[in-house]
Amino acid sequence: MARPDKVAFELVSPERLLVSEAVDMVVVPGTDGDFGVLPGHSPLLSTVRPGVIDVYQGREVRQRIFVAGGFAEVTPGRCTVLAEEAMPLSEIDRGAVETSLRDAQSDFQDAKSDGERAHAERRAGLAQAKLDALKRNPVH
Question: What is the pLDDT of residue 36?
Answer without folding.
Answer: 96
